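Thanks for the sequence, V.! I ran Beta-xylanase right away. Repeating your input here for the record:
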Amino acid sequence: MTPPPNTSAAVASAAVADPGVAHRTRTRTVQLLDPAGRPLVGSSVTVEQTGHDLGFGCIGFDEVHRAGRRLAGKPFTAAEEELHERLDALWFDLFDTATLPFYWGTFEPEEGKPRTAALRAAAEHFVSRGARVKGHPLVWHTVAPQWLVPKPDDEVLRLLRARVQRDASEFAGLVDTWDAINEVVIMPVFTKDDNAVTRVAKTVGRVGMVRLAFEEARAANPSATLLLNDFDMSADYEHLIEECLAAGIRIDALGLQSHMHQGTWGKEKTLDVLERFGRFGLPLHFTEITLMSGDLMPKHLDDLNDHQVEQWPSTPDGLERQAQDAVELYSTLVADPRVQVITYWGLSDHGMWLNAPGGLVFADGTPKPSYDALRGLIRGQWWLAPTTAVTDDEGRVQVSGLPGRYAVEAHGTRTEVQVGDDAAEVAVTVR
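Predicted structure:
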């Protein structure tokens, strides 16, 4: 019997019903054809999401450590391997974009001997599992190599250019997004240590340093996405961006750090930051998010590094607050179409910056309420789980959800389609 015409067959994700992100939803029509090119009418189709266009990221520093240990022939204990595997599974169950550490001083502690192999192995680990990888950063005054300090300024600049060229080129195809330069606002006036990058920045200037980083990285990898990244959300950062754009520097995206050790920004400040930096018309990457699950750092500290403690435990109230803060922040960011990547600065409490309880997972690999809350959004409310629909009288089915990759399966044939701004109909031949 011929099935009745079905002209409204559609697949819609839960995101459509979320008024906060419904405007980011896109729909694409897929027509299923048999090998003779005839529409498959009334066929059962399963559609599921396989990836987000919007990057949900986290650092992958532990994988670099793991690769380094293996390359050095220093095996892990069975307990260490088990914990790493547990954390690795939690990482991939939530995130799809890894930030890897290319701090010059630790990447190349001895001149001419960069730790390329460990970083490459870590990058390959993430890329092989379908994740995107960003390098952080190519130019920064902090964690600069000490062997650079005694060299004259012209040699420092030559070596800095060479470093950017070498690593942007060496990792092209694996690492195609970079924080080209980090924390430029404070760079020429930094006084916490004696480093050669701050010294040359005083002469070259902020715009000159940005130009160096972007032009050398762009020449080494023309297809790379290059960010200007900073923690300073004041007007000083806005002025720097204005000066760089006026100087003709091509910035692909703006990196906005948000380490919230002293308390969450809240929705009002987050929206203010989005408006002030969104006005430049550049994609926004929230590059470094940290939310506390314990007591907050004292408000009077201007430099977070001044808060040095041996232990900083989570608290029941802090765990609940962290989950609530995570939901509010991520919901606010996902609702803004200018935001392209959201990166959390550490999956686990183990090795967390400043010993802070900022991880989404306890040091033993147990998820905190914040992890579960974010997973409920990223892989739940904003994710299309396997859904069945029936093709209409022209063999068509509509795939609707947040921009990303979706798999369409019928009669044993599975095809991946992209849902986004391209609304052109896709024809799929079912074998």
